[in-house]
């Protein structure tokens, strides 16, 4: 994706239309830009899940999403300018900055945003059960 021209990027526009991403905002994670920076960084790094997909598009900077594989081992996903990721509802994950300590990201949602994170363990939520079922089926 063309992060330098995200406001007019036809590819982003098509993704938003096709996936019904009707709501978006932009967050800058940097000590000089994010209120309660230290607290937020710790919160982002706590292993958690959401009941909705988490969609992030990196407009500038870089960082890492860590997710669990089917054997519950960490997989680190490097994210940099121009990358977009969709973390499915129910997947345990966390986010951290890299050595640059800066990322600017677009957050996309279907409908109104829901910010609630459920720290592990959160295995009783239907979204988690559905994700685990998906993993089991994919492994067959």
From TrEMBL:
* Xref: Gene3D superfamilies: Jelly Rolls
Keywords noted in UniProt = Amino-acid biosynthesis, Cytoplasm, Dioxygenase, Iron, Metal-binding, Methionine biosynthesis, Nickel, Nucleus, Oxidoreductase
Q: Which reaction does it catalyse?
A: 1,2-dihydroxy-5-(methylsulfanyl)pent-1-en-3-one + O2 = 4-methylsulfanyl-2-oxobutanoate + formate + 2 H(+)
Q: What is its EC number?
A: 1.13.11.54
Question: Which cofactors are named for this entry?
Answer: Ni(2+); Fe(2+)
Name the top EC class: oxidoreductase
Membrane topology, record value:
Peripheral membrane protein
Keyword Iron-sulfur: yes or no?
no
Q: Name one GO molecular function term.
A: acireductone dioxygenase [iron(II)-requiring] activity
Q: Where in the cell is it found?
A: Cell membrane; Nucleus
Ranges annotated as spanning the membrane: none
Q: Which Pfam families match?
A: ARD
- What protein name applies here? acireductone dioxygenase (Fe(2+)-requiring)
Lineage runs:
Eukaryota, Metazoa, Chordata, Craniata, Vertebrata
């Amino acid at each position: 994706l063309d992060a330098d021209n995200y406001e007019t990027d036809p590819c982003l526009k098509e993704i938003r239309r096709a996936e019904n991403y009707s709501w978006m905002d932009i967050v800058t994670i940097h000590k000089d830009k994010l209120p309660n920076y230290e607290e937020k960084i710790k919160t982002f790094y706590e292993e958690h899940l959401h009941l909705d997909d988490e969609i992030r598009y990196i407009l500038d900077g870089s960082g890492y999403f860590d997710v669990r594989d089917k054997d519950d081992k960490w997989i680190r996903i490097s994210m940099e300018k121009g990358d977009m990721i969709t973390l499915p509802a129910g997947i345990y994950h966390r986010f951290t900055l890299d050595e640059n300590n800066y990322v600017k990201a677009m957050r996309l949602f279907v409908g109104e945003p829901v910010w609630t994170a459920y720290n592990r363990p959160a295995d009783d939520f239907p979204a988690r059960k559905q994700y685990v079922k998906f993993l089991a089926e994919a492994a067959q």
